[in-house]
Amino acid sequence: MLQQYARVARPFFVMLAIVTVGRWLMGTVFPVPYERGTHVFSLVTLTIMASLFSAVYTRRWLDWRIARAAGFGMFLALTAQAVILISTAASYLLQVPSYFSHPVALNRTEAVGFATAMGIRAGGLVVNTLLSGISGALGWALGGLLPGRDGR
Known about the structure:
The chain is built from 6 helices and no strands. The protein has one domain (2-143). The chain is 70% helix and 0% strand. The model has no long low-confidence stretch (mean pLDDT 95). Helix 2 (10-28) packs antiparallel against helix 4 (43-61), helix 4 (43-61) runs antiparallel to helix 5 and helix 4 (43-61) packs parallel to helix 6. The two termini are 29 Å apart. The chain is mostly helical. The chain has helices spanning 2-8, 10-28, 34-37, 43-61, 66-93, 114-143. It is elongated.
């Protein structure tokens, strides 16, 4: 099942790479303030929308049931959250201020240490995985509005 998830998620993986690189560049190379640029390249928004939108089509194209569509959304979220965890760790370990280590990204008003940041990111992994599962289930429900293979 994970092989099929990974195969179906290929477009998401490309978008995830683009958004991750964009987020790194905006936070390091280009002097875009976090508050002004964070919404442009949001991994969480990308993941929620991808979970929702892809589940619409997996219902009709692949005949997936709701549990599988929700699982796919959770798979996407786990992948994105792993990228966020790794990017946050890299930002701290390399001492590079980035959008991944910005206090607001960690729901704080002041900078926090590495261990605290990783704890916050672990919480995000759980919450965002559940939200993407819900988005996948909602997308599956919306997939019922698409015409079937016979065009009806």
